[in-house]
Amino acid sequence: MANYTAADIKALRERTGAGMMDVKKALDEAEGNVDKAIEIIRIKGLKGAAKREGRSAVEGLVIAKVVDGTTGYLLEVNAETDFVAKSDKFVSLAEKVLDVAVAGGHETVEALLEADVEGKKLSDFVTEEAAILGEKVVVRRLAKVTGSYVDSYLHKTSKDLPAQVGVLVAVDADSDDAKGAAHDVAVHAAAFSPAFLTRDEVPTETVENERRIAEETAKAEGKPEQALPKIIEGRTNAYFKEHVLVDQPFAKDPKISVAKVLETAGTSAVAFARFRVGS
């Protein structure tokens, strides 16, 4: 019989995140050698990686880090189940990936996955860690924003899970008022899901499609021809107010826009990013 104790099993489970039976089998096969057991767990996990490729990874977390108050990184990492997504090992893996992104100044997931970590590509490192977790793990999205000041906000949709929503807001001033406004806008963006910072960022085809829909809807409603231009303009503006951050009515005071909040604080937004897990 292999020479190991219940304490060894517990310690190995904490180190690897593997199930109790998998840990016991690995210790048996390794004859109690912990390092060998970890290797066995990794190898067996990697063998199952191909089978996991087609599975969906829709749970996970969003994390953020701001460097020197001026550069923000936002990262989404996905797993298959919320059970793994809230585990310490998965959270630690996501933090490691974010540290690599920050250290390399990476702006895209593609570049990040090619980065070196512990002598191997990050993509291989993630695969090996996923093997231990026993689930498909995907580094899904990465954003980097810069400004005179960058604020980050993370929101938990469930107290039992890591943050599911993350926002970065960059502004062009670093006064106390600007910092306060940036934070308020980040919290606002977490709740109101803007897709664009300004109207200029909305694709031309999207605007044209909204105008077309507005015109066809107004005609179907029997609106008079002479009223159509004003109606189309009004409904297109309504689209902007819903989807453009600076045009949205501010959460704390819907009578004013986000742009007005920033203007009052002596600043304006220059960039933002918002991730919600799985969306």
From TrEMBL:
Transmembrane segments: none annotated. It is found in: Cytoplasm. InterPro entries: EF-Ts_dimer_sf (IPR036402), Transl_elong_EFTs/EF1B (IPR001816), Transl_elong_EFTs/EF1B_dimer (IPR014039), Transl_elong_Ts_CS (IPR018101), UBA-like_sf (IPR009060). One of its GO terms (molecular function) is translation elongation factor activity. Keywords: Cytoplasm, Elongation factor, Protein biosynthesis. Residues 81-84 are annotated as: Involved in Mg(2+) ion dislocation from EF-Tu. It holds the Pfam family EF_TS. The keyword Cytoplasm applies. Residues 72-278 form the Translation elongation factor EFTs/EF1B dimerisation domain. Belongs to the EF-Ts family. NCBIfam families: tsf. Associates with the EF-Tu.GDP complex and induces the exchange of GDP to GTP. It remains bound to the aminoacyl-tRNA.EF-Tu.GTP complex up to the GTP hydrolysis stage on the ribosome. This is Elongation factor Ts. It comes from Nesterenkonia rhizosphaerae. The gene is tsf.
